[in-house]
Specification:
With about 375 residues, this protein is α+β, with helices and mostly antiparallel strands. It is built from 11 helices and 7 strands. The protein is about 65% helix and about 15% strand. The strands form 2 sheets. Strands 2-4-5-7-6 form a 5-stranded mixed sheet, covered by helices on one side. Strands 1-3 form a two-stranded antiparallel sheet. It is globular and about 75 Å long.
């Protein structure tokens, strides 16, 4: 893989993200053991985790390189490429996970077949989901690069062809969508890992199903300009369920759906951006308990120019915060990108307001209910 500036940054980011993920997982493991009153052999636990995760960290750039080559050569579909990588990597994962489990449980590794059969099924499901997330991240990175390249070509062509303006807008939307932070997937995986370590299989399987729904929606919605608001709302509820597993009693959620009709549409990840922004800058930044209020209403108003009634959708996301935390002024990156997307889609028919007091921060949005 030829290391240009972008690939170098991506490679460094890969190692940093994996190092943080392993550190957080290890720390959570020690905390869980301490709460359960279980004595942990620290060196053995560290070795077990390194055996499990270091190979994943090293193979991720290889996955990216292989996917990039196949897209350039266009010999295999994404599905075929994914299956080749899965079949090639699966035997290595089987051996490594078996060795890691045997080391941390201080059991005999051989005969190897018996040790493999003895592994809990949740571990294999977790490994498969980890593979799916890594593959998705690699594909998203490749798509982001291709989107940027297309956008630059379109900008050059615009000088001689005015008709490319619409295409440029579409490319800009895709570029902004690609900036949605995917760290909630790693947080969700970490929450599931905690449940696996405590052998809470029922809650772990429930969380896995919800994460599967999140991934399915994200893949389907990322290629659409508008989605049904009901699907967006279900997506946010699954996302909040996973966040509740992570933060437990620290996160108090109140969702009020006061709409009179249920057939509205909206851009994908609209409500999720507001909710993720509230959790990131509230609960994650401060570490204290947070109250989150989500209120959804609709309304009919008379358009002054056309003298016709128009349906509007109103969103309110409000989160509590500490008075001692200094809040930044204006919109953050996530909300700024969202406002840019909405301006493109709805032109001047968008109202986005934020307010910040010593007790809470809130965002209000009003958009057309039917695109």
């Amino acid at each position: 893989m030829k290391l240009n500036n972008f690939n170098t940054k991506a490679l460094i980011a890969n190692f940093v993200v994996w190092a943080l993920f392993v550190t957080i997982s290890l720390s959570a493991s020690f905390i869980d053991a301490n709460r359960a009153g279980i004595e942990v052999d620290v060196p053995i636990r560290i070795i077990g985790y390194l055996i499990s995760f270091i190979p994943w960290m090293l193979i991720t750039p290889v996955f990216y390189w292989f996917l990039q080559k196949q897209q350039e050569q266009k010999k295999l579909s994404i599905l075929a490429t994914s299956l080749i990588l899965l079949v090639s990597w699966a035997p290595v994962v089987v051996i490594l996970e078996t060795a890691s489990y045997s080391i941390m449980r201080k059991t005999e590794l051989f005969p190897l077949i018996d040790s493999i059969i003895a592994l809990p099924i949740v571990i294999w499901v977790y490994c498969f989901l980890l593979y799916a997330v890594i593959l998705g991240a690699c594909l998203a990175l490749l798509y982001y690069r291709r989107s940027n390249a297309n956008r630059l070509e379109a900008l050059k062509a615009k000088q001689t062809n005015v008709e490319l303006e619409l295409q440029l807008s579409e490319l800009r939307i895709q570029s902004l969508l690609s900036q949605l932070e995917p760290h909630f997937l790693f947080n969700a995986l970490n929450s599931i890992a905690s449940l696996v370590r405590t052998l809470d299989k029922k809650r772990a399987l429930t969380a896995i199903r919800r994460l599967s729904d999140l991934l399915r929606y994200a893949i389907e919605a990322s290629n659409q300009k508008y989605v049904n608001f009901e699907d967006e709302l279900n997506f946010v509820q699954d996302y909040l369920s996973l966040q509740s597993l992570r933060f437990e009693e620290k996160l108090s959620i109140k969702l009020l759906d006061k709409r009179s009709v249920q057939n509205q549409i909206c851009p994908p990840f609209l409500l999720q951006t507001f909710v993720e922004n509230a959790i990131k800058h509230g609960l994650e930044a401060e570490g204290s308990a947070m109250n989150l209020l989500i209120e959804i209403t609709d309304n009919q108003s008379l358009h002054e120019q056309t003298n016709h009634y128009k349906d509007t959708l109103h969103l309110l996301v409000k989160n509590s915060h500490l008075q001692t935390i200094k809040k930044s002024k204006g919109l953050g990156i996530g909300l700024t990108n969202l406002k840019a997307r909405l301006d493109i889609l709805y032109q001047e028919n968008v109202t986005l307001e934020t307010s910040n007091t010593s007790d809470f921060y809130q965002v209000k949005l009003q958009i057309p209910a039917h695109g």
